Amino acid sequence: MPTIIFRDDDTSYFTTPQRLETVYRRVWEAGRPVCLAVIPAVFGDTRVYWTDGNPHDPGIPPAFRGTSTCYSILDNRELCAFLNELAAAGLVEICLHGYTHTFYEFITHDRAVIHGKLDAGLALLERAFPAATIKTFIAPYDRLSPVALEQLIAGGFHICTMSLNLAPLPQLPRIQGYAAGTMKKGQMLYVCDDYLFTYKRKPAESLSLARAALAGNRLTIISNHYWMFFHPWRDEPNPRDFAAWNAFLDEVLGVDGPEVTSFSAYPGRASAAE
Ligand SMILES: [Zn+2]
Questions:
Q1: 97 C-alpha to center of ligand 1: Å?
Q2: Other C-beta atoms lying within 10 Å of the C-beta of residue 75
Q3: Cα 12 to ligand 1 centroid, rounded to whole Å
Q4: Which of 58, 124, 169, 206 could bond to 40 as cystine, CB 3.0-4.6 Å?
């Protein structure tokens, strides 16, 4: 039976329940979970350093771009209440998505810096989401140093990342594409090497790549950024991108559809299937 994990990055102080519901309402109504990579204290002047001119992070609303402030998830009470309810119902897994989500946040080799950010980020999310158990780490921009990887493993986290980050640690499972491997007993490594539903692709191409991924893999990780459906931060989703997403949901949420699980629930399901 093929399995899907839905992952969505960049939930933060700036995220409204309405935007998440627009994208995932159908998944939740079908009783299936979504893994949300949540930024504890997003920095307003986050820049994208792999793009010429270092533009602002498009996941931050235009009015807040360039502000030298960290915005705590705790201060968005409506969102915290909404996500605590979903977490208590088993419909979201809250994942730690860095601390402030700056570009190079976890590419450093400074153990004290990494340790401090993991501790502070986890503490903030645990205060914001008492109904959730936070076990999974997803790096901002998928940038992760070998030292950060080692510390995450020692810290007991499941990790979802791109396979290119794994080369410096040969003891890790050699997996790529969309896959899961075991790092230690009960502690999983997930790789997701492509983001399918993005405004940078034609919607029909996103849909056909998602179908092919599902047909060709035991586990497919569908990684989205909810804000991409609204890019550039419009009130309503882009109709063509949203139609492709809904066509995919039509195919996967039916009674004959794949299993949908989460990063923290997958190990039990995978071993039960063996
Ligand atoms: Zn992110």
A1: 7
A2: 11
A3: 10
A4: 124
C-alpha atoms less than 13 angstroms from C-alpha of 209 in its C-beta half-sphere: 18
Is 172 a residue whose pLDDT tops 90? yes
- Sequence-separated (6 or more) residues with CB below 8 Å from residue 251: 211, 257
Q: What is the mean pLDDT of residues 136-160?
A: 97
Buried b (16+ CB within 10 A) or exposed e, 4-36: bbbbbbbbbbbbebebbebbbeebbeeebbbbb
254: CA distance to ligand 1 center in Å?
30
CA of 61 to the centre of ligand 1 (A): 14
Q: Ligand 1 centroid vs 261 CA: distance in angstroms?
A: 21
Q: How far is the CA of 9 from the centre of ligand 1 (A)?
A: 5
pLDDT at 270 over 70: no
How far apart are the CA of 255 and the centre of ligand 1, in A?
Answer: 32
The alpha carbon of 226 and the centre of ligand 1 are apart by a number of angstroms equal to 11
Domain ranges of the chain: 3-273
CATH of domain 3-273: 3.20.20.370
Helices H / strands E in the chain, number of each: 7, 11
What pTM value is reported for the model? Answer: 0.97
Residue 57 DSSP class: P
Q: Kindly give the distance from the C-alpha atom of residue 272 to the centroid of ligand 1, in angstroms, as a whole number.
A: 32
In tens, the pLDDT along 85-115 reads 999 999 999 999 999 999 999 999 999 999 9
Cα separation, 126 vs 220, whole angstroms: 28
User: For residue 192, how far is the Cα from the chain centroid?
Assistant: 10
